[in-house]
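dude i think i finally got it to work??
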Amino acid sequence: MFGVQKKKSPNHIQRADENLFFRGRGIVRFRPLLFLSLSFGLGIFFACLFGLIALVGASVFLLAAAGVLAYRIWKKKFAVGFLLFAALLCLFYALGCLSFSVRIGAFERSPEISGECSVAGTVEEIGESKEYTLLTLGDIWLIDGAGNSFRPNAKLQLYIYGEVPAAEIGSAAMFDAEVQTYDAWAYGRVNANAVIGNTRYRASAAADKVVFSEGEGVGVFTAVRRAMRGVLFANMDEATASVAYGMLTGDSGYMDEDALQNFRYGGIAHIFAVSGLHIGIIYGLLSALCKKCRIRNIVRVPLVFAALCFYAGVCGFSPSSVRALVMCTVAMLAEAGGLQYDRVGSVSCASLTVLVINPVYLFSVGFQLSVAAAAGIVIVGGHLTRLLRKIRFLPQKVCSAVGVAFSAQLATFPILIDCFGYVSGISFFLNLVFVPVIGAVYSVLFCAVALSVLLQFAAPVFLFIPGYLLRLSVMPIVMLEFKVLLICGFSFGSCAVLWYLFLFFLSDKVNLKPAPKISFAAVLCALLIAAMMFQNFNIGMESVMTLHAYYGSNIGLIRSSDGDYLIVYGEADGRHIEQVFLKEGITELRGAIFLTAPREANTGIPVILQYAELQTVYVPADSQLIDSFRTVEIRYESGVFVFGDAYAQFFSDELLYLNIRGAGIVCDGGADEVPALPECDLLIANTENDAVRKACSPRAEVYFEKTAEKMSVYRAGDLQIGWKNDIISVKDAG
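look at this
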């Protein structure tokens, strides 16, 4: 910690609680790392919105700096340091813009490919679910139908349906399948996972169509992961081994989907994202060992850093593991150098490091949750803990645990709601009780697995007790049902900014007297409530339809006066359907229409029933769909029928005409043969179809999939179509 000492400027004396991470006692303390991290992040954000034109935004920094500089000169204050820092902010903003543009450009340089191709590649990752096995292939070769060969510097995701033969990481895979291309921007947002993983292509194939052969050797990180997986699955039952492997590596692909979903519903799935909990435990174990062995700081710091860095590599250098690694490193250096540790500066440094490695992490849900949780604990958690300690009967450890858990919940709340459609109503209590238990089990498990990998002959002995403890600790989570306790049915969107400003003003990081502080917080609270009502309630609309899509799972929801109605335009994907229903608060459907072939409708109805009650399915009179459902009425319609607030009529299995409030709408699920259609105000279809367009002559068109110039869910994200006074409006539903 610094002592009191004079600086070069005679007007300033450095206090004992100041260091290079934070200075001053203004309304908000000056933190250089925080401002640099924010400027870099803003550069990435504006580059995403406006491309390289966002570089013009650096002039905003310059104008603001000029204004403050003029004020400081007027006050006759020294300004060289301020000028240098302003220039540094501009530089970081520009670097953020450029790094994002370069990363997106590198991803899009791999050619767009669509259609039937012959593919060969090396298996780099393996994931499993009930429906399919997901392989990520690198070093790929593609040969299209015209005989053109490609060797793009990108990866391919292969969905294999059926019983898959034993495929190991490092083995070669060969198959023929229809290949699709991932875009950098899809469904209204950056396709962060694809860009970060450089996964440009996707394909699906039956298990008997994929040929595996022995490949070349694998890297050291992959070899360690393979060894860990081998000893775990050889010495534990499959369910326990999959949980242990997920906790140790962050790879939950081997877990049973229902069990993993229960962890999500309980709000504790973060134990499978290697983060501060995991890295912190390992850091504590290694530090204690080094102190026990009396290893000096000059050796201890690089030794512990190397071990943590290696473990982060085994976990794939995920953003949460890198953030935790940087924070632990900053803490080590501060302790070794005798500096006061600043947690805000540490989180800022960690965030900046991750974004420098890959700027697209800014749009990754994992990164957002990791940083939000850490920032919430730092900014709100300490203040909340101190307030709780004023309650005499509460133990210190309970106050600290409640402060940490509750602040993390508050900080991640908007992100969870917007990205997954729900927040667990019991997660606060589970994190208080379960996470300390699983943290203790993890520390034992980590040591046992490390010894088992080194001494595999003794693995059964090493893993017996950790396996038993892990099985016992996760048993209540797997057995109980948490879905009924979910908080859902609304979204934040841009209102999340007001939420975080509100939390920030209530924290001790804003140095204001109670009266103005409470006043500002009250104003922010009122603005947040008003904005959330506008965001989530269809004020002034007579009828509303929302459109949602995700790679073929295309649906439309009609919010009618007598309930909710569903139109399915393609394959009903369970994960996508669940997320939409939770986000929209759908628990019961009065009716549904499947604009698909009868076979796809027959498989889609059970998917819908998993997530909502369904009363009636409407089909054309000549449909081949067999009425074999006990709880769902199948109604065969030959003419005009009532569908919520709409009058509807089938023209084929894939073509439907709706009249809502006097407006005509043609819904196309992919019709091959197009009969005569009435003229309409709006055409809603999966993709462009000239025959349908000519038959109905629409005034406006909306598509689910990618189109050249027309409005689409693929480009804009979820869309809301509203009717008021015979006027149709279409806007972003987010």
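Residues 80-108 form the longest helix (29 residues).
im so relieved honestly
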